[in-house]
Amino acid sequence: MPQPVSPVPAGRFSDNEREAVYRAIHTRRDVRGQFRPDPISEEVLHRLLHAAHHAPSVGLMQPWNFIVIEDASAKSRIREAFRRANDTAAALFPTERRALYSTLKLEGISEAPINICVTCDRSRGGEVVLGRTHNRDTDIYSTVCAVQNLWLAARAEGIGLGWVSIFEEEDLRSILQLPDHVVPVAYLCLGHVTELYDEPELQARGWASRLPLDNLVFRDRWGARRRNGPA
Ligand SMILES: Cc1cc2c(cc1C)N(C[C@H](O)[C@H](O)[C@H](O)COP(=O)(O)O)c1[nH]c(=O)[nH]c(=O)c1N2
């Protein structure tokens, strides 16, 4: 059996370490309206990108790039693309829902000192990538793993992060000048925040609520020990 080249202990974290990991997971929030204008230091930004870059990826493809946007005029073009897409999105909801939708703040593009577009280079790793042969989208999934690493690291650093997906992809492509083989996966707004919601903001505002976990776990579905899930 081959041994790890430089083994690290694989046991449980200490109580404090474990508590910190779960705290980051449970208190991470999507941030739209609570950004402070003060900059994120280079050291912190580097730690966040380093955390993102340590995400799992199919065949160790590491298909991501991180486009860091600080320029006010670039942000304002992106913000305008959001506004157009958001008008289209709003019109699709039934009247009552639309009224509530129009009260929601769904981005902090201009207020956040840093925006990051996380992209996926679908050509990285060549024609055949280990693990990707039967599901071409595993490169996109890998990129989303990088986003989640970034999000959790940001929480631990006291940096708020908001994911904005209300765009026509073509708008992002043209503003950011992305070549065809590069997909914009996530547009993120980052900055210091003073406070965070203690529950998802969309829940606090009556848009949706967290589903009970028990309804989502199907255990021993085919055996005698079925506990949860549909009959
Ligand atoms: C892929 C994807 C895309 C988006 C989001 C998330 C994800 C995963 N979310 C944030 C989303 O609304 C939020 O995560 C949930 O409401 C849960 O809240 P917390 O993240 O727990 O605060 C989000 N929020 C928002 O205000 N505008 C947006 O365009 C999006 N887009």
Topology:
Blueprint: H1 15-27, H2 42-53, E1 64-69, H3 72-91, H4 95-101, E2 114-121, H5 138-156, E3 159-164, H6 169-176, E4 182-192, H7 201-204
The protein binds the ligand Cc1cc2c(cc1C)N(C[C@H](O)[C@H](O)[C@H](O)COP(=O)(O)O)c1[nH]c(=O)[nH]c(=O)c1N2.
The ligand Cc1cc2c(cc1C)N(C[C@H](O)[C@H](O)[C@H](O)COP(=O)(O)O)c1[nH]c(=O)[nH]c(=O)c1N2 binds at residues 29-30, 32, 106-107, 163-166, 200-202.
Family: Belongs to the BluB family.
Subunit structure: Homooctamer.
Keywords: Cobalamin biosynthesis, Flavoprotein, FMN, NAD, NADP, Nucleotide-binding, Oxidoreductase
Tell me about this structure.
- Residues 25-192 form the Nitroreductase domain.
- Its EC number is 1.13.11.79.
- GO terms for molecular function: 5,6-dimethylbenzimidazole synthase activity; nucleotide binding; oxidoreductase activity, acting on paired donors, with incorporation or reduction of molecular oxygen.
- This protein has helices at 15-27, 42-53, 72-91, 95-101, 138-156, 169-176, 201-204; strands at residues 64-69, 114-121, 159-164, 182-192.
- It has 231 residues and is α+β, with helices and mostly antiparallel strands.
- The protein is globular.
- It has a single domain (29-194), classed as NADH Oxidase (3-Layer(aba) Sandwich).
- A four-stranded antiparallel beta sheet has the order 1-2-4-3, with helices on both faces.
- Helix 2 (42-53) runs antiparallel to helix 5.
- The longest helix is centred in the middle third of the chain and has 20 residues, at 72-91.
- It has seven helices and four strands, in the order ααβααβαβαβα.
- Bound molecules: the ligand Cc1cc2c(cc1C)N(C[C@H](O)[C@H](O)[C@H](O)COP(=O)(O)O)c1[nH]c(=O)[nH]c(=O)c1N2.
- The ligand Cc1cc2c(cc1C)N(C[C@H](O)[C@H](O)[C@H](O)COP(=O)(O)O)c1[nH]c(=O)[nH]c(=O)c1N2 is lined by residues 29-30, 32, 106-107, 163-166, 200-202.
- Residues 29-30, 32, 106-107, 163-166, 200-202 line the site of the ligand Cc1cc2c(cc1C)N(C[C@H](O)[C@H](O)[C@H](O)COP(=O)(O)O)c1[nH]c(=O)[nH]c(=O)c1N2.
